[in-house]
Design goal:
This protein has about 375 residues and is of the alpha+beta class. It folds into 2 domains: about 230 residues, 3-Layer(aba) Sandwich (Rossmann fold); about 130 residues, Beta Barrel (OB fold (Dihydrolipoamide Acetyltransferase, E2P)), CATH 2.40.50.140. The strands form 4 sheets. It has a 6-stranded mixed β-sheet, sandwiched between helices. Strands 11-12-13-20-14 form a 5-stranded mixed barrel. α2 packs across α3 and α2 packs parallel to α4. It is globular. The mean pLDDT is about 90.
Length: about 375
């Protein structure tokens, strides 16, 4: 990779071990200036270790880290122009809002008049111009989040690191703060690197997302690319909700492949990669709930030859969640399939125990070689 003035951060072949554990395994990536970049993965995949190396709290065993085109490997954490927001925010309870934001500027020896100007300016930019004199305990959870970001941004960092900052919030506030953080990133036009295990946070806020697994990046792309065009079974199963079967390829069927699942179901699937189209190959099969149509038994049906899959079953239960409601349908082999449905509360709604037919297109049935 070549350093570019348009790149805020570049990591080149970064590795880190702790004893016999390889936490980060030869990871390389670069982040364009002013991006919202998320690193998404399960607990223990290495994402926090990676962000700590960027911040300077851990030293990589090998590799390079460049910020604004310059190596920072031998630069102490307090000398890197990188700031970090933690899950528990670490605001000083003995200081009011103004003093919390001004603290870093005072430590850097900035003149009082300039501190006043910069603190008041950053409070306006986070839409809290009149809270400077408030104590920290007087703020709501969302306001505390914004103050934690403001305390970093007043120092004009090249990169802001956010390590699961919404993890301690309740669900409704967490949903609201996803939008808040995205708006704040646009407001400051600073590169945000966001660490999370919550796919919804990463997909909603990010320009690009890296999916991390066992110390490596499985795939880096836009949220749309990761959702609709995953490159591995891990990404397909980790990003978004999916119904999943294990099976084996039987034969090619035009651009699709015919597969047989472990419980005897035959499906048409879209092979991702040449290996998935090979006859007799073990595969993982995924279909997202929103691509499945649920019809009451006796309704019009599409045959597999028309490029669709069909499966008969019985409605096991209904999961009401407003516009995101789902039916759990049990097949003859006792496999449970989730399908998105609309529940209006009226008499026409599906009911548990009803016989139904599930129909979904072959080209939305993802198939990966194992």
């Amino acid at each position: 990779m070549v350093n570019s003035p348009s790149t805020d951060l570049e990591c080149i072949n970064i590795s880190k071990t702790f004893g016999s554990v390889l936490a980060v395994d030869n990871v390389s990536f670069e982040i364009p200036r002013g991006s919202f970049f998320s690193i998404l993965g399960p607990s223990g995949c290495g994402k926090t270790t990676l962000i700590r190396m960027i911040a300077g709290f851990e030293q990589p065993d090998s590799g390079e880290i460049h910020i604004k085109g310059k190596s920072v490997l031998n630069t102490a954490p307090n000398k890197r122009n990188v700031k970090m927001v933690f899950q528990h925010l670490a605001l000083f309870p003995m200081m009011n809002v103004y003093e919390n934001i001004a603290y870093g500027l005072r430590c850097n020896g900035v003149a009082k008049d300039e501190i006043d100007q910069r603190v008041n300016n950053v409070l306006k930019r986070i839409a809290l111009p009149d809270v400077g004199e408030r104590e920290i305990h007087q703020l709501s959870g969302g306001q505390k989040q914004r103050i934690a970001v403001a305390r970093c941004m007043v120092l004009d960092p090249d990169v802001l690191l956010l390590d699961e900052p919404l993890g301690a919030l309740d669900l409704k506030l967490r949903e609201a703060m996803k939008i808040e953080l995205k708006l704040l990133q646009h407001q400051f036009d600073t590169t945000f690197i966001y660490i999370t295990h919550d796919q919804s946070e990463a997909l909603v806020m990010s320009d690009r997302v890296a999916i991390m697994n066992q110390g490596q990046f499985e795939q880096v792309g836009t949220p749309q690319e990761l959702y609709h065009a995953p490159r591995s079974a891990f990404v397909a199963g980790f990003v978004g909700d999916s119904n999943r079967w294990a099976g084996q390829t039987v034969a090619a069927a035009g651009s699709a492949v015919r597969v047989k699942t472990e419980d005897g179901l035959e499906l048409l699937a879209n092979p991702y990669g040449a290996a998935a189209a090979t006859g007799g190959r073990a595969v993982d099969i995924f279909i997202r709930p929103e691509f499945i149509t649920v019809e009451r038994a006796g309704g019009a049906r599409a045959a597999p030859e028309s490029g669709h899959n069909t499966l008969n079953g019985v409605v096991d239960s209904l999961l009401f969640n407003g516009a995101n409601s789902r039916a759990l349908v049990r097949s003859a082999s006792s496999h449970l399939i989730e399908a998105d449905i609309v529940l209006t509360g009226g008499n026409e709604d599906l009911q548990p125990g009803e016989n139904v037919t599930l129909i979904w297109p072959a080209d939305q049935t993802m198939c990966f070689a194992t």
